[in-house]
Design a protein that fits this description.
The chain has helices spanning about 1-10, 45-50, and strands at about 15-25, 30-40. By secondary structure, the protein is of the alpha+beta class.
Length: about 50
């Protein structure tokens, strides 16, 4: 499994994506939850501005 990840990073295709983690407050319980998503580098600002 790790060999495949390293191989994709060497080709340069894996570097155009980032894992973004955003903390969101739940409207029902009021507790905070974490929203994780792998996003293309061009759309990182859109991920953090959406609700």
């Amino acid at each position: 499994m790790a060999k495949k990840v390293i191989a994709t990073l060497k080709t340069g295709k894996g570097r155009s994506f980032s894992k973004c983690i955003k903390m969101v407050k739940s409207p029902k319980t009021g507790a905070y939850i974490f929203k994780e998503e792998i996003v293309h580098n061009d759309h990182i600002k859109d991920f953090f501005t959406e609700k």
